[in-house]
Specification:
The complex is a heterodimer of chains A (about 170) and B (about 120). Chain A has about 170 residues and is of the alpha/beta class. Chain A has helices at about 15-25, 40-45, 70-80, 95-100, 115-160; strands spanning about 5-10, 30-35, 50-55, 85-90, 105-110. Helix content of chain A is about 50%, strand content about 15%. Chain A has a 5-stranded parallel β-sheet, sandwiched between helices. The model of chain A has no long low-confidence stretch (mean pLDDT about 90). Chain B is about 75% helix and about 0% strand. The chains are: A alpha/beta (about 170), B mainly alpha (about 120).
Chain lengths: ~170, ~120
């Protein structure tokens, strides 16, 4: 059975977390864990989420809380293979550029179409990952096939040189 | 929803793909969070705390957008911008009052809607 993918949602607005969690559970076969601050999410990275959906502002309950960019940097430092999608209420190009610079794979503005964009973004990511996996599997199988062919040729040469194999085998 | 409706759930219906249970989750989330969000705006206003106001408006804004409360989508954005830049401060009390009034009407409408689901 395929392993269920794990998604972390990190947003200081629990209402938004609830809504997005319900949406993702309806659309994907995933396990979703929601956090209202980045620090808790960092403490739970050992659970190995494949994807994180991270809000930009996380200081609703604590003025000193790390913001989304800080959390993104820390995640990418410790878990570089983890995919982070940034979500924000602000439609500012410089914020989007910043988040991509620090390793987010997408930046989505929280608006009525935001959930659909998150879904599309995750679908695109799944597709990219699947394609990468298929290409890797194809390369591996090609490599193995070449190895087997080379081994057969080497064996044939050795057998011929040692006289074990001839053009006119007596047993033929 | 009738023509006088203050909420427009068409986007929510699209998001939920017609799933009534998901619609219920979304609407219930708004019903739970709207009053505390309004209280946060009023608290920031009475304390003249514009940083807090910006934060409260920023948090409440997506909820208003998701519920399609179009009468105040522009107001909440202006409120967030005014609080962030600390400009047009004299207009902030009116904006908060309008957001509260419309939100309470939307809440009543949504409560009625969820009862009929």
């Amino acid at each position: 059975m395929a392993k269920t993918k794990k998604i972390f949602i990190i947003d200081d607005d629990p209402t938004h977390n609830d809504m997005l969690k319900a949406y993702l559970l309806e659309k994907f076969n995933v396990e979703v864990l929601a956090f209202t601050n980045g620090e808790d999410a960092l403490r739970n990275l050992h659970l190995k989420p494949e994807f994180l959906i991270l809000d930009y502002y996380l200081d609703r309950n604590n003025n000193n809380a790390l913001n989304g960019i800080d959390i993104l940097k820390r995640i990418k430092n410790t878990n570089p293979d983890c995919y982070v999608l940034m979500l924000s209420g602000q439609d500012k190009i410089e914020v989007a550029v910043d988040t991509m610079k620090y390793g987010a794979f997408d930046y989505i503005v929280k608006n009525p179409t935001g959930f659909i964009r998150v879904e599309n973004s995750l679908n695109n990511l799944y597709k990219t990952l699947r394609d990468k996996y298929l290409i890797k599997a194809y390369r591996t199988s090609t490599f193995i096939l070449i190895g087997v062919l080379a081994l057969i040729i080497i064996m044939a040469v050795i057998l011929k040189q040692t006289g074990i194999a001839t053009n006119n085998p007596s047993w033929f | 929803m009738n023509q006088d409706s203050i909420v427009d759930l068409s986007m929510l219906k699209t998001i939920s793909g017609g799933s009534e249970s998901m619609m219920k989750v979304f609407i219930s989330s708004f019903i739970t969070s709207a009053e505390p969000s309004i209280a946060d705006l009023e608290k920031a206003l009475s304390a003249n705390d514009w940083k807090l106001m910006k934060k409260a408006a920023h948090t409440y804004k997506p909820q208003i957008n998701y519920m399609g409360i179009k009468a105040i989508t522009g107001t909440i954005q202006r409120l967030e911008d005014s609080a962030a830049s600390e400009t047009n401060l004299d207009e902030i009390p009116t904006m908060v009052a309008q957001i509260k009034e419309v939100s309470l009407r939307a809440l009543a409408e949504l409560k009625q809607h969820i009862e009929q689901m």
